[in-house]
């Protein structure tokens, strides 16, 4: 569901509600605002977030999209406040008198320039009007079950002051086009495989949709496959692809590092032998017989023969 200002009064009459609701946030020049649920997040924390949003709307004069999903309804009281936003543009008793005075002081000059009087009530009304004009509320809720029906009955602003955008299944051409945006030019996917992968993700998404019908017929349970699931599917694949790429690069570096360490260790192992190879010891060591097995030499004169054996041993066991 999309809401722009207060639809009954300030919706642009040159645009139908459907067209206005389909406008993207970047096209509207808006910033996105969302709450972040955490442990113990309740109405008090929600009100604090709403204060931040209203300061962004009325004081900073920033057009803002407030995105609120069904998963963020930690308490039904949240919907009561959103209902007030949709109906009257402001949450009653949200700001204390001290907070109101501070806001009035911040926007008084802008209010006077806009033609408002300098009184507190007039400046505050300017602030409320700015918030209403800059606020775009987007509620994302599933129509499945009776939850949305009950909420619309309890909070009439969800229906009376919004326009509803229904998102239907995407056709195959749209699925291919969306997959190409994310996958067709991805440098981590070899070019010969890109079309095949695009076709595969489209096939998987469509197949899951087909199986949900069998699931309903056989088990009498509903499962929903939406375009959001398709986008999540592609993003999950890209995340796994990126993780695997980092893993392979890390493994390659480890292998190269192991080879380098192994080579250094081999030369370090030969260091005691190499240190004995002075001129006198080499002269005293004699020649190594071609028929003499490795390791069978006079250990009292080890230098030249040990050096040769050590070198040969290193050559026989390359790293």
TrEMBL record:
Superkingdom assignment: Eukaryota
Protein's organism: Timema monikensis
GO molecular function ontology, one term from the record: ATP binding
Annotated Pfam families: AAA_8
Disordered: annotated segments: 1-27
InterPro entries: DHC, Dynein_heavy_chain_D4_dom, P-loop_NTPase
Keywords: ATP-binding, Cell projection, Cilium, Coiled coil, Cytoplasm, Cytoskeleton, Dynein, Microtubule, Motor protein, Nucleotide-binding
Subcellular location as annotated: Cytoplasm, Cytoskeleton, Cilium axoneme
Organism classification: Eukaryota, Metazoa, Ecdysozoa, Arthropoda, Hexapoda
Domain Dynein heavy chain AAA module D4: 25-240
Polar residues bias spans: 16-25
GO biological process per UniProt: microtubule-based movement
Family recorded in the similarity comment: Belongs to the dynein heavy chain family.
Entry's Gene Ontology cellular component terms: axoneme; dynein complex; microtubule
Protein name: Dynein heavy chain AAA module D4 domain-containing protein
